[in-house]
Amino acid sequence: MVGIVLATLTEAIAGTVLSLGRADIIGDTYATPDEFAWLDVGYITLKLIGFMTAPWLLQRFNSRTVIIGATLIMGLACGMAAITARLDLLIALRIIQGFAGGVLLVAGQAMIFRAYPRALQPILQALFAMGSVVAPGTLAPALQGWLIDSQSWTWIFLCVVPLALAATGLLLIAEHPVPAKVRQRSFDWLGLSLISATLFCFTYVLSQGSRWDWFEEPHIEWLTILGAAALLAFLGQQALVKKQGLFDFTVCKSSDFTFAFCVSFVAGAALFGSAYLIPAFALSVLAFTPTDAGLLLLPSGGFFIGSLLIAAFLFKVRHVPPVATVPFGILMIMAAMWMLSGSTSESGAADMMAAIQLRGLGLGFLFLSITLIAFTDLNSRNLACGIGLFNTGRQLGGLMGVAGLQTLIEHHIVINGNVLGANVTSGGHALIERLTTTTSMLAGKGMDPVAAGRAATSLLGKTVTGQAAVIAFDTAFFSVALLFVVAAPLLVGIKIGLSRYGKARDVNRG
Questions:
Q1: Residues with Cβ < 8 Å from 277, sequence gap 6 or more?
Q2: DSSP assignment, residue 262?
Q3: What b-and-e string marks burial along 174-186, b requiring 16 or more CB atoms within 10 Å of the CB?
Q4: Quick check: helix, strand or coil at residue 265?
Q5: The pLDDT value given to residue 244
Q6: Which parts of the chain sit beneath pLDDT 50?
Q7: CB distance 53 to 195 below 8 Å
């Protein structure tokens, strides 16, 4: 278990390196924003392809071999990324890191389900979630912020290397389950090509659409159409080849898995969206350093871990059904985002801490529940496919959430700036008083009176822009809470519909 958790930590650190290290990496590689975007697009696309390919690898090789190979590849790619500033090489290494990360996450979780009895899964899945969900959302940003301020971004990649070696050593010496022999399928290259095209198009559109004003740019429109066509072709091709395709869609016959898969989209949007919003607000509005912005989420990690363990105790010892904690998780996340929507430009870490901690509690109750709901009833044959599909849903939900929030913030900064600017009327008493006071203060510090007047006007403009940004972020925080208001009834309806469909199918079989 320790080896698997350490392996997932390598993906957590490598996967989030761009969140706080973006400006430093751009400066050292002399990359334009469009060139730099390929570091992100390449990683996420290949991570999603790794989710889809891992089930076939686990059928061809045993779980331990797959996870060790993926971990070593991750460590090697991160070690090479730490010693180069060539953008083309970094993009290639990010692609390798993404594929290795996707494979090791699926292999690690599948190995836990196959190695241990069902009674131990609540606590073991809670431990796995600490490396795969808690670390990238809370622990990794704190480590990265400190390394960027005290060392450089290359140290973020370097610290992955010892973790990969330690994980590999522990996995080599540990006993592992020998999977039952199954008939091996030939690799579905056509299916892989179609789903790879789909995932690339959707990843690029969701991560770069906001920058290009979405469908105002022709290439975003064409990539969306191409991605949708490739997805339809993939689904049709998988239906034609039936059980010889890339993916085993018999997992969708489980109503519990289908429900959890739908929830994973919303949970991914809440996790990734809030993990993007809080540091972005701290960096751009509150002028936190990367270290302070990273540390802001660290207490949330402690509460996240605590709620995971509490939920595991309730499921294992008190025999509480996993679905029972889903409403509590949703309500806590909603309350946390609503509390954060009242933040101002004068807010500090202490003002936001209660909401951030409540967010951690909610995420813990939500993620362990949907994990157990999704995979408990799957058999060893389609378990890996279920894990890969579930993780794909969570990642795509996160991409959608972040893309929506980025667009919302950008549009509202402009709208709020126009509204606030319209109320700063020329000749108004309050405006004249503000400019006069600021000009006198600057002149008193030795600035030329004419220059002081211009500087006072510039400072007023920055104040208006800053206030527009505060209101935009508050709207974004509130929108995450509103997401659950809209999604919760839909999810309840899906659960009821799936239950009725399952009962009707059982009656027909009887």
A1: 340, 405, 473, 476, 477, 480
A2: H
A3: eebeebeeeeebe
A4: helix
A5: 75
A6: none
A7: no
> Is-contact 312 145, C-beta < 8 A?
no
pLDDT score at 198:
94
CA distance 85 to 271: 31
Q: Nearest Cα to 194, choosing from 148, 160, 227? A: 227
Return the structure tokens found at 406. Answer: 């980025």
pLDDT of residue 225: 94
Q: Are 238 and 249 in contact (CB under 8 A)?
A: yes
Q: What is the pLDDT of residues 201-241, one digit of tens each?
A: 999 999 888 888 888 889 999 999 999 999 999 988 888 88
DSSP summary character for residue 40:
H
What is the spatial distance between Cα 125 and Cα 118, in angstroms, rounded to a whole number? 11
At 20 the pLDDT is 64
The angle formed by the CA atoms of residues 177, 180 and 183, to the nearest 5 degrees, is 145
Phi-psi region of 242 (alpha: psi -120 to 50; beta: other; left: phi over 0): left
Mapped onto helix, strand or coil, the DSSP state of residue 431 is: helix
> Which residues have CB under 8 Å from 165's CB, separation 6+?
75
Amino acid at 231: L
Distance separating alpha carbons of residues 319 and 314, to the nearest angstrom: 6
Distance from CA of residue 374 to its chain's centroid?
A: 19
pLDDT on residue 432: 65
Q: How far apart are alpha carbons 27 and 473 in whole angstroms?
A: 27
Could you tell me if 73 and 121 are in contact, meaning their C-beta atoms sit under 8 angstroms apart? no
Contact status, residue 224 vs residue 215, Cβ threshold 8 Å: yes
What whole-number distance in Å separates Cα of residue 391 and Cα of residue 136?
14
User: What is the C-alpha separation between 112 and 90, in angstroms, rounded?
Assistant: 32
Q: Which residue has the tokens 């801490």?
A: 353
Distance between CA atoms of 101 and 199, rounded to whole angstroms?
16
Provide the token pair at 434: 């503000």
**DSSP 8-state class, residue 118:** G
**Alpha helix segments (H runs only) across 341-382:** 349-375
For residue 176, what pLDDT is reported? 65
Q: What is the DSSP string of 143-210?
A: HHHHHHHHS-THHHHHTHHHHHHHHHHHHHHS----PPP-PPPPP-HHHHHHHHHHHHHHHHHHHHTT
Which of 149, 63, 48, 11 lies closest to 384, judged by CA? 63
**8 Å CB contact between 176 and 63:** yes
Q: Residue 484, class by beta-carbon neighbours within 10 Å (0-12 exposed, 13-18 middle, 19+ buried)? A: buried
- The percent of residues above 70 in pLDDT, for the chain, comes to 91
CB neighbourhood size of 379 (10 A): 10
DSSP 31: -
Residues 6+ apart with CB under 8 A from 92: none
